[in-house]
Write a structure and sequence with these properties.
The complex is a heterodimer of chains A (about 350) and B (about 300). Chain A has 13 helices and two strands; from the N terminus they run E-H-H-H-H-H-H-H-H-H-H-H-H-H-E. Chain A is mostly helical. Chain A is about 70% helix and about 5% strand. Chain B is mainly alpha-helical. Chain B has one domain: ABC transporter involved in vitamin B12 uptake, BtuC (Orthogonal Bundle), CATH 1.10.3470. Classes of the chains: A mainly alpha (about 350), B mainly alpha (about 300). The interface between A and B is large, with 46 and 48 residues.
């Protein structure tokens, strides 16, 4: 019989192997799903793992999806490492898009390019504001951050809807629920003409470095992680759990808000009810699959973006619903959590209970 | 008068969804396990129930399908959390994320379907009483079943031996284990029961309450039901009351819109979510009170022999 046995210390090798095994399991289930739906599994895999990386242009499109995922997941990694369960990044993303969008709408044809910086700062502040509500209610009233942050996602959605159906609706937009198209000066500068890849990619890479430094090279980052792993030890050492709470939520809110502003003034160019695209939730998976490590997050964000693009291609070329992306994302996290067991435990063949010998007649 | 009677009727119906799911999560949490996958289980159950109702025309088969879907998902969650010791929060989240993707995926062909000829229910005799009839006695049977379930669950928890064992497992799995109770199997049973009830609630949404299938139609009801267990300090009767309260808030917004109140409808739609936050704040203000009432091992893994 297979039995779990605690390892003397967590296995480093398994913690790196686990995401790969989880990916393999997800792919296997995916192949099964394609066969079940009567599609050629090879073609299916091609949509997900070949098409998104086969040309420079495809890679640029991949990065358009990966940038918000990296930014949000970095913030979430800080939160999760401090044992704070902010699962409302989607709402913080929307608030960032709203704040950044509001600044962008103030621009006209005479505005200089400095407006881009203002948009991004506004986005960060918007996301921070939404994160601060969670921190405040948890700090002051002990309200569960999981539920509060999630409820605020719905509130942010309603706020966005109200604005684009009401006060911010484009008067010349044929009554569509959308804001005016932002002035050209607000467009996030692109890196290569004709591709949607923009400076967001550079910002994300800088954020990866910054987040790594914060987590592993600063005293504050160390305090946060001790508080997450061993709250009693952190208290004993005099590390403030309130500081940790505010730092983690403001950071993750700000990062999600930044991603929202980049999205609004980048690929979208206006505000519509479709601003929330699920990045905030997918980033939770990205953070875990990336082992809550800044560098791991880059890899897992790229993988998750391949799922997104693969899903879109599966819809247009294979006639499968786009939501197959969500199925695979969920499966990946499930498989990962199961495989992670092997970091702390190992499987052992335990001899079955010895049976009383049966006498032969 | 009639408008108020209808508002009460709608409140009971909306509250029933939250009550059934909340009671399920209560069983689940009484065993010491938090399942953040409620939203995902309800979504998958909603499409399972709706598809069943479309093909068979039977509400009861639809509820059974919903319960089955919820139980199955909960079982997967339970195996991971209880036997593989995975993090309860992360695994629950995975269940919710998977559920929203999976329900959208399988539900796509049902988005245009409609349930024809919805049966009309009334309790003979009582349904004709003025005001009270339309307010209370013309509901789907599930509304009354939810009340029955509340009473049954209260009896089970506080008056039956099995309920005592369940509470013991939630308060101190170590002692229950030492006494020889199969802690992990009991926890799995509680989780599966919770999933089945969340499933019934999900199917009620798509088959009776709305009745149609739209992607993401649970719209946070699973999360609100989770908040409800805290709000009710893990007591069945309070879950039911809380559910009606939230049902009332949900319905009040439609009522206000109908009355032509000058508040944009989108902001009114945010009311139930804001109410949840407000209630959480009010209820959690006193940490000792929560700690006294909360099952002591809630959220903590139990691994015998470690």
């Amino acid at each position: 019989m297979l039995k779990l046995e605690a390892r003397p210390q967590p296995s480093k090798a398994m913690s790196i192997a686990s995401p790969l095994v989880a990916l393999a399991i997800t792919v296997l289930i995916g192949i099964g799903l394609f066969v079940l739906l009567g599609k050629d599994p090879l073609k299916g895999l091609q949509m997900f793992f070949v098409e998104p990386v086969k040309s420079g242009y495809a890679l640029a499109e991949l990065s358009v999806k990966a940038v918000p995922l990296v930014l949000i997941a970095l913030g979430l990694a800080v939160c999760f490492r401090s044992n704070l369960w902010n699962i409302g990044a989607e709402g913080q993303f929307v608030l960032g898009a709203l704040a950044g969008g509001w600044v962008a709408m103030q621009a006209d044809e005479h505005t200089g390019r400095w407006i881009v910086a203002a948009i991004l700062v506004a986005g960060v502040l918007g996301g921070m504001l939404w994160g601060a509500i969670v921190a405040l209610l948890r700090d002051r009233f002990n309200a569960n951050e999981i539920l509060v942050s999630l409820m605020l996602v719905y509130v942010a959605d309603m706020l966005l809807n109200w604005l684009v159906y009401g006060p911010w609706k484009d008067p010349h937009g044929y009554n569509f629920p959308q804001s005016v198209t932002f002035a050209a000066a607000t467009r996030i500068p692109r890196l290569i003409d004709g591709w949607r890849l923009n400076i967001g990619a550079l910002i994300a890479l800088a954020a990866v470095a910054g987040c790594w430094l914060f987590l592993f090279r600063t005293y504050r980052g160390f305090q946060l992680q001790v508080g997450g792993l061993a709250p009693a030890a952190a208290r004993y050492a005099g590390f403030s759990s309130r500081t940790a709470l505010w730092t983690a939520l403001l950071m993750s809110g700000g990062m999600a808000g930044l991603a929202g502003a980049l999205e609004a003034a980048g690929p979208l160019g206006q505000l519509t009810p479709y601003v929330p695209a699920g990045y905030g939730f997918a980033a939770i998976i990205v953070a875990f699959v990336g082992r809550l490590h800044p560098v791991g997050i880059v890899f897992s964000a790229v993988l998750m973006s391949m799922f997104y693009i693969g899903g879109e291609l599966a819809q247009s070329r294979l006639g499968l619903p786009k939501s197959i992306t969500g199925v695979f994302q969920g499966l990946l996290l499930f498989a990962l959590l199961a495989c992670d067991t092997l970091i702390h435990y190992r499987l052992r063949w335990a001899a079955a209970q010895p049976r009383p010998a049966v006498k032969e007649a | 008068m009639d408008a108020i009677a209808l508002l009460i009727a709608a409140t009971l119906s909306a509250g029933t969804v939250l009550a059934i799911a909340g009671l399920g999560l209560l069983i689940n949490e009484r065993s010491g396990i938090v399942n953040l996958g409620a939203e995902g289980m309800m979504l998958v159950a909603a499409i399972a129930g709706f598809a069943t109702a479309v093909h068979t025309g039977s509400d009861w088969l639809a509820f059974a399908a919903g319960a089955g879907a919820g139980a199955l998902m909960a079982a997967a969650f339970g195996m991971l959390v209880i036997w593989l010791n995975t993090n309860q929060y992360a695994t629950g989240l995975a269940l919710s994320l998977f559920g929203s993707g999976f329900s959208a995926f399988v539900g796509i062909r049902y988005t245009q379907e409609k349930l024809t000829a919805r049966p009309h229910f009334e309790i003979p005799g009582l349904a004709d009483i003025p005001f009270l009839g339309p307010a209370l006695f013309r509901q789907h049977p599930m509304v009354y079943l939810a009340i029955g379930l509340t009473i049954a669950l209260a009896w089970f928890l506080y008056r039956s031996r099995a309920g005592l064992v369940l509470r013991a497992v939630g308060e101190s799995p170590e002692s229950a284990h030492a006494l020889g109770y199969p802690v992990r199997r009991i926890r799995l049973l509680a989780v599966v029961a919770g999933g089945a009830l969340c499933g019934v609630a999900g199917a009620y949404v798509s088959v009776v309450y709305t009745p149609l299938w739209v992607e993401g139609m649970i719209a946070g009801k699973g999360w609100i039901a989770l908040a409800l267990t805290t709000f009710a300090t893990w007591r069945p009767a309070r879950v039911l009351l809380g559910a009606y309260l939230f049902g009332g808030v949900t319905m009040l917004q439609f009522h206000l819109q109908g009355e032509g109140v000058q508040i944009p409808s989108q902001l009114l739609s945010a009311l139930p979510y804001l109410a949840t936050i407000l209630v959480l704040v009010l209820i959690s203000r006193n940490p000792t009170w929560i700690r006294v009432n909360m099952p002591a091992s809630l959220g903590k893994p139990f691994f015998p022999g470690s």
